[in-house]
Automatic annotation (TrEMBL):
PANTHER family: NADH DEHYDROGENASE [UBIQUINONE] 1 ALPHA SUBCOMPLEX SUBUNIT 9, MITOCHONDRIAL (PTHR12126:SF11), NADH-UBIQUINONE OXIDOREDUCTASE 39 KDA SUBUNIT-RELATED (PTHR12126). It comes from Parasitella parasitica. This is NAD(P)-binding domain-containing protein. The gene is PARPA_01531.1 scaffold 1359. GO terms for cellular component: mitochondrion. Residues 61-246 form the NAD(P)-binding domain. Coiled coil: none annotated. It comes from the Eukaryota.
Length: 379
């Protein structure tokens, strides 16, 4: 704190006014060094959204389901975030996640190396969240998950980026019967060939407000179906928990070169997920059951339709596969995160599918009297 004294003369009276000027002092704890590059990063401010922590992060796939949460988490702690987009309208909502000048939108194309270089050349960490659940005439799974990941990793290596985080998927394997999961495994391999100390993240089925999981179940459009007779075992995980894990990796140098499998604390069958949705939405949510071969045949037809983003034969294949956890794999526990149990918060995501008559009723699992009264109201 610095002080200055000013003298004012008013008539015969001398008035002494003490003016205080606040200055920010910084010490050694405000200095962070990247172990890989030795690059210094200076913090400004008291922490939080309106401060600067010295990091610059690029997020590819920022306009997707998980991407918006990652950008928000990073920006809230004062990180300057480069949001790489293909459609400016889809990235517009990310502008307000950070303070003025902290969110930098840059257009890119996976096949344009110069644009990718421009997105990563100032960053000390890059998150590759680019992915898709279905193939199009312009981009196959391999185009996006393998070739796209490789070119982004090469740009990062050429521009001296200290950290690289690659988003993969639980069950990813080069021997998988799913093209999607095979491409995810090959993408991991391609990234590690270019950047051996890249961090690989394999999340399970993610749920959240904009997901394609709980929303598909709750909409009850008459298209619900049981693949594998509803016996497939999965471990759904909160998208916010996954974003929190990626946020920790920003400064946790111990995560370098490691692979993390991020999944929920409880295993469910698809039947149990539907039953949970019925209890919360208080709707019957009818489903259809048929052999997998029939579903794949129908999915093949739908896959030929233009602008189809609902179902494909590969999706049917993935929906029939149980989640497999790699023995000894690093998890949320190694990041000191307690993942959220779906049952404890599912009402926050499924309540909106209730009818007006029962919208405000509480959810108590297994309360037969409440359920009986609810269905009476509906009738």
């Amino acid at each position: 704190m610095l002080s200055s004294v000013t003298l004012k003369h008013v008539g015969r009276i001398n008035i002494v006014t003490k003016v205080a000027t606040a200055t920010q002092t910084r010490t050694i704890h405000d200095l962070t060094l990247r172990k890989k590059t030795g690059e210094p990063m200076l913090k400004y401010g008291l922490g939080g959204r309106s401060s600067t922590n010295g990091h610059i992060a690029t997020v590819f796939g920022c306009t997707g389901f998980l991407g918006r949460y990652v950008v928000n988490k990073l920006a809230k702690q004062g990180t300057q975030v480069v949001v790489a987009y293909r459609d400016a309208d889809e990235a517009r909502h990310l502008k307000v996640t950070g303070d003025l000048g902290q969110i930098i939108p840059l257009e890119f194309d996976l096949r344009n190396k110069e644009q990718i270089n421009e997105c990563v050349r100032h960053s000390d960490i890059v998150y590759n969240l680019v992915g898709r659940d279905y193939e199009t005439k312009n981009f196959t799974f391999n185009d996006v998950h393998v070739d796209g990941s490789r070119v982004i990793a090469e740009s990062c290596a050429e521009n001296g980026v200290a950290r690289f985080v690659q988003m993969s998927a639980l069950n990813a394997s080069e021997d998988s019967t799913s093209k999607f999961l095979r491409s995810k495994a090959l993408g991991e391999k391609a990234v590690r060939e270019v950047i051996p100390d890249a961090t690989i993240v394999r999340p399970g089925t993610m749920w959240g407000h904009e997901d394609r999981f709980l929303n598909r179940i709750g909409e009850d459009g008459g298209w619900q179906y049981y693949v594998n007779e509803g016996n497939t075992k999965i471990r759904p995980v909160s998208a916010i928990d996954v974003a929190h894990a990626l946020e920790i990796m920003l400064t946790a140098e111990s995560t370098t070169g490691k692979t993390y499998e991020l999944y929920g604390p409880k295993e469910y069958s698809i039947k149990e997920i539907f039953e949970l949705a019925r209890e919360i939405t208080m709707k019957p949510l009818p489903i259809r059951a048929a052999p997998n071969a029939v579903f794949k045949l129908a999915a093949t037809f739908f896959d030929k339709l233009p602008y189809n983003q609902m179902v494909s034969p590969d999706l049917i294949e993935r929906m029939s596969m149980n989640d497999k956890i790699t023995p000894g794999a690093l998890t949320f526990e190694d990041l000191y995160i307690n993942p959220t149990d779906l049952e404890t918060v599912a009402i926050q995501f499924l309540r909106r599918f209730r009818s007006n008559a029962v919208f405000d009723l509480p959810y108590e699992k297994g309360d037969g009297q409440v359920q009986k009264g609810v269905y009476h109201l509906i009738d």
